[in-house]
Amino acid sequence: MKIQLLTLGLLMCAATFAPDTAAAKKASKKQIAIQLYSVRDLIGSFGQNQHDYTDVLQALGKMGYTAVEAASYNDGKFYGKTPEAFKADVEAAGMEVLSSHTTRNLSEEELASGDFSQAMKWWDECIAAHKAAGMKYLVTPSMPMLKTLGELQRYCDYFNEIGKRCRENGILYGYHNHAFEFQKIEDRVMLEYMIEHTDPANVFFQMDVYWTVIGKASPVDLFHKYPGRFRMLHIKDLREIGQSGMVGFDAIFRNTDVAGVEQIVVEVEQYSYDVEKSVRMSLEYLLEAPFVKASYSK
C-alpha cells in the first residue's frame, strides 16, 4: 500500500508537528525510543532526501519519546550532520541518542573469499562516528538473501568480527530481522542458524515483532528458545501500533525478561493518518498499556 504523505508537504513539517500539549502532559514516564525511519517523509533516511529535522525532533520529544534510533548514517554523518551535532540536536529535544541502523554488505568477491579487510576499514570509520555520536547500539538492518549455509556462515563470521570491534569501542552490535530470515536454507531456518552461529558476546538480535509474525514465527517461542539474545525489540504493527490485532503485544511484553530486552523502539512503516498522528498514536498505545514497563534498562 502507498504511504500517505502529509497533504501540506515537507515544507510544512513544523506546523504539522506542532506539539499536542494535552497529550504531552498525559504521557507517563516510560523509556520508549523511536526509529527515525518512521518520520522519513519529513526528514529523509539512509542519506537520501535530507531535510532539516529540528522541529520534528522537538515534537517527538514533547510527545514523550525518550530516545532515537537513526536511519541515515552516510560518510561519517547522520542526516547530513556531524556525529557531535546530531547528538546535540537530539539532546536539545529532550531525548538521547540510542542506536543506529546501518550496514555494509559483502561484495561477491568478499563473500566468496572470506576476506573482510576492506569491509573492516569501512566499519572502523563507521564505529568511530557512532561512538562520537554517543550511540549505545549499532544495528545491521538487513542482509542479502543468500543461497547456501556456507554463505550464511560467512555472514555470521562477518557479524562476529563487526561485533567484536563494536564491543571494543563500547558499543553493542546487533542484527534486525525482516520476514525472509524465517525462510530455510538447506533445511535450516536462517535466523535460528544466525543466532546459533554468532557469539552472544559480540552479536545480539533486535527482533522486529511484526516481521517475525509475518514470517510465521512466534516471538515468545523464540524468546524461550534463545533466552537473552534479544536486547532490543522493534515494536511495530501493520500501521499504528496496536491497531491491527495481528501482533500479540501483551504476550510479547510479558516475556521480555527471558528475551533479555533492554530497549524498545517504535517503528511505523505505513500510516492510516498523517505521520504526526500515526507516531503519536503508537506512542500513546504503549504509554497506556499496563503490560509495558517504565524501563527495560538493566
3D structure, described in words:
The N and C termini lie far apart (38 Å). Strands 1-2-5-6-7-10-11-12 form an eight-stranded parallel β-barrel. Strands 3-4 form a two-stranded antiparallel ribbon. A two-stranded antiparallel sheet has the order 8-9. It is α/β, with parallel strands linked by helices and 298 residues long. It is built from 14 helices and twelve strands.
Beginning-to-end CA distance, first to last residue: 38 Å
Structural class: alpha/beta
Number of separate strands: 12
Percent helix, as a range, is 25-40%
The proportion of strand residues reads 5-15%
SS element count, helices: 14
Secondary-structure element pattern, one letter each: HHEHHEEEHEHHEHEEEHEHHEHHEH
Trace the largest sheet across and list its strands: 1-2-5-6-7-10-11-12
Mean pLDDT: 91
Low-confidence stretches: 1-16, 18-25
User: Nearest-angstrom radius of gyration?
Assistant: 19 Å
For the largest beta-sheet, the strand count, sense and barrel status come to: 8 strands, parallel, barrel
Coarse shape: globular
